[in-house]
Automatic annotation (TrEMBL):
It holds the Pfam family CBS. Keywords: CBS domain. PANTHER family: CBS DOMAIN-CONTAINING PROTEIN, CBS DOMAIN-CONTAINING PROTEIN CBSX3, MITOCHONDRIAL. It comes from Terasakiella brassicae. This is CBS domain-containing protein. Residues 22-79, 88-142 form the CBS domain. The keyword Transport does not apply. It comes from the Bacteria.
Length: 142
């Protein structure tokens, strides 16, 4: 626990995730023109709870999580399946960097009541997501 408390970083979780699933590159994204069913299928195929949404220029415009999908369906009933998915995207994405201390990221997630934080490279590009489940699995690995 001392390692997690004092030394573990987001980079450690990235490495752990890649060792658990080597073919996954970390940045799962779907076009903003996708339908809700395509989004749900994509998330199910990749067994993830959040994906990035990108525009026609392949620029990330936000994140969509399982919670966003449920909220969208609850608010719109069957019409949810007819509305564009970009209407449910979170444009204000909370981010962290590879070198950030994991304890600080986990604390921020708890304070904000969120389960996913986007990871930025040193160049400011999105490179993946760290989830509360990722942190729990990493903390419990040893």
């Amino acid at each position: 626990m001392l390692f997690f408390e004092n030394y573990a970083t987001v980079e450690d979780v990235i490495n752990f995730k890649q060792s658990e699933n080597p073919e996954h590159d970390g940045l799962l994204k779907i076009p903003m023109t996708a339908t809700l069913l395509q989004l749900i299928d994509y998330m199910a195929d990749h067994q993830v709870g959040v994906v990035f949404l990108h525009d026609a220029d392949d620029q990330i415009i936000g994140l969509i999580s399982e919670r966003d999908i449920i909220r969208h369906i609850a608010m719109n009933a069957l019409e949810a399946f007819e509305k564009p998915i970009h209407m449910m995207v979170r444009h204000s994405v909370i981010t962290c960097k590879r070198g950030d201390k994991l304890k600080a990221v986990a604390s921020h997630m708890a304070e904000q009541h969120i389960r996913h934080v986007a990871i930025l490279s040193d160049k400011g590009e999105y490179i993946g997501v760290v989830s509360s489940s990722d942190i729990e699995l990493f903390a419990g690995k040893g």
